[in-house]
Structure formats: structure tokens, C-alpha cells
From TrEMBL:
This is Ktr system potassium uptake protein A. The lineage of its organism: Bacteria, Pseudomonadati, Pseudomonadota, Gammaproteobacteria, Vibrionales. Residues 5-121 form the RCK N-terminal domain. It comes from the Bacteria. One of its GO terms (molecular function) is monoatomic cation transmembrane transporter activity. InterPro entries: NAD(P)-bd_dom_sf (IPR036291), RCK_C (IPR006037), RCK_C_sf (IPR036721), RCK_N (IPR003148), Trk_Ktr_HKT_K-transport (IPR050721). Signal peptide: none annotated.
Amino acid sequence: MNAEDKQFAVIGLGRFGMSLCEELSERGAQVLAIDINEICVRQAADIATQAVVADCSNEATIAELKLDDYDLVMVAIGDDINANILTTLLLKDAGVKTVWVKAKDTPHCKILSKIGADKIIRPERDMGIRIARNMLDKRVFEFSELGSGISLAEVVVTARNMGKPLSQHPCANSDETQVLALKRGPEVRKAPDMDMEMQVGDILIITGPEDVLSETLRKL
Ligand code: ATP
């Protein structure tokens, strides 16, 4: 499915919700932007496909907006945790297939996962973890959680592995992690040959269980 064919709804147009709307729209996706506050909706009207003022913690509103027709609904309501939880519950009850929710803390995450949230995002915590990993190790460019405990990392090849076959890289040398691609300059080689000699600066795109991947990267 192309980005243009996907229908998204974003509920709550704070900094987080609004930046989602901007990025999704820029990439050609259909976005319905919703907020209880008219000022936020007016700002989003220039960005999103459609922008409406609505209180999504109300069952009739969820039905009226036909949110169950959307591929993914993001609940980006922040401070009002009651509204955040109630909206999530109503969306799941209405049969929305995929509901992602922004959460504040661990107890909030627990409730959201009990009521069926499909993905729980803690932007400040997730960004903090990502930046700390970057600060500690310049060799790990990117580390992202894909869900279900699986993560993806971009790792740069250093002098220690120069000239060795890819099969000898610690991330390729494990049953649980897998090298999906190798980037060399502008070129990207998908499912690279394990006999290929590594060069300094090559970037490996690796996937695997988050704990195994973190541990392997720590030992690089
Ligand atoms: P950010 O960090 O993204 O700026 P935040 O975490 O401070 O945001 P809030 O500003 O509390 O979150 O909430 C985000 C938006 O959600 C607000 O614009 C608010 O008006 C909206 N909102 C709150 N309750 C509802 C509701 N019941 N239905 C729709 N939108 C709502």
C-alpha cells in the first residue's frame, strides 16, 4: 500500500500530534486531524486533509467520525489522562483496527496495554533512550523498536572489522540477529553476501530481538 492510499486520524494536536500530521501529509498520506480545541484545529486545517473540532472521549463522536474506517488512529492527547484512556477504549470498542497511543508513564502504559492499545509511545523516554545510545556510541547511528520486542539498528563498520568477511561481524554471527542490508556510500545492498569483505564506514542494517541486539551492540 502506498502512503497516499493510507488513511490516518490523529486525535490531539499538541506539538506531538501536529508534527505527526505535518510529516504524514508531506509524505502524501490522508490525515484527519482532530482536537477539542478550535485554535489547534484551525492551525491543522492548513496541513491535514481534513481537520475537525471534536471531543473524542465521547462515544457518539467516535461513531459519527467513522473512525473505524481508518487504517491507523493515533491518540496524542497528553495531560488529560482520563480522556486519553477513554478515547483509546472507545476506539477499540468501535472496532478500529490499529490504535497507537501516546503515554505518560509506566502505570499509564499498563492500562493502555490492558485495554488493547496496539502500540504505546512515550516520546520523551523513547527519544532520551535513542539519544543516550547515540551519545555512548557513535557506531550506532539509529536504534528503533519495531514492536513485539524486535528492533532495528544501523551500525557503522569500524577498523576492527576492516577486510573481514561480513559473516564474522558479531551481528551477523548470531542465530538471533540478521543483517538485512549493507550501505556503502550511496549504494544499498539488500541481503548482502556473507562472504563480502567489510570496509570501514560501511553501514549494516540489522534486526533482532531488542535485548539480544542491545547486548551485541554493547560488545562491539
Ligand atoms: P505535546 O507534548 O504534544 O505538545 P501534551 O502532551 O502537552 O502535548 P496536551 O496539550 O495536553 O498534550 O494534549 C494534546 C492535545 O489534545 C491538546 O491540543 C488538547 O486540546 C487535545 N485534547 C485533549 N482532550 C481531548 C479530547 N477529549 N478530544 C480531542 N482532543 C483532545
